[in-house]
From TrEMBL:
One of its GO terms (molecular function) is signal peptidase activity. Residues 17-77 form the Peptidase S26 domain. SUPFAM superfamilies: LexA/Signal peptidase. The chain crosses the membrane at residues 12-38, 145-167. Its EC number is 3.4.21.89. CDD domains: S26_SPase_I (cd06530). InterPro entries: LexA/Signal_pep-like_sf, Peptidase_S26, Peptidase_S26B. It comes from Cuneatibacter caecimuris. This is Signal peptidase I. One of its GO terms (cellular component) is membrane. Pfam families: Peptidase_S26. The keyword Transmembrane applies.
Length: 186
């Protein structure tokens, strides 16, 4: 393999590995520092958060929330929503207990039920459009197989050229020393 081809190949594999690492950090690694990651499944928060976006949610002190803030919260045990606060309602018996009236930016009406402060997961800090589609796909059996296959291909792309280059170098050195036997009949 010529030096130019090897340089191009090294550049190409470096870009691929960097992209894979950045993708892994965006999907999994960011959770290590405390973010929770959710995929936007509906258009209720368009244009703020587009369907298919990944939103990165950070824990928030519910007492510091104000109307206009966006929160991510549990609607029920299995359903998470991200909507904007339109009103904060104190409990008549205990003013420390807060509930939040919310509304999706693209929705005509406010949400039917108030959000109890204990159901607040956090507030979105940033989002990455379209990455949620990929995040959801890799959680399916075919998506898992694709990721495993892509990992093997990436390893091959990264190490195979060095193995080939090394084998060719060994043959050249043997040839220079005369170690390679000539085929019979020549």
């Amino acid at each position: 393999m010529s030096k130019t081809v090897k340089k191009i190949w090294n550049w190409f594999t470096t870009v691929l590995v960097t992209a894979a690492v950045l993708l892994a950090v965006a999907l999994v690694g960011i959770r290590i520092v405390g973010f929770q990651v959710f995929t936007v499944l509906s258009g209720s928060m368009e244009p703020t958060y587009h369907v298919g976006s990944l939103i990165y949610v950070w824990d928030v002190d519910y007492r510091k929330l104000q109307p206009g803030d966006v929160i991510t919260f549990l609607l029920d045990e299995d359903t998470v929503a991200t909507h904007r606060i339109v009103e904060i309602v104190s409990d008549d018996n205990d003013p420390q207990i807060l509930r939040y009236r919310t509304k999706g930016d693209a929705n005509e009406a406010e949400d039917g039920a108030l959000v109890h402060y204990k159901n607040i997961i956090g507030s979105p800090v940033f989002s990455i459009p379209m990455l949620g589609y990929f995040a959801n796909y890799i959680q399916t059996p075919p998506g898992t197989y694709v990721v495993i296959f892509a990992g093997f291909v990436l390893l091959l792309l990264f190490f195979l050229p060095d193995l080939i280059f090394s084998a060719n170098q060994d043959k050249k050195q043997q040839k220079r020393r005369g170690d390679l036997k000539r085929p019979r009949g020549n």
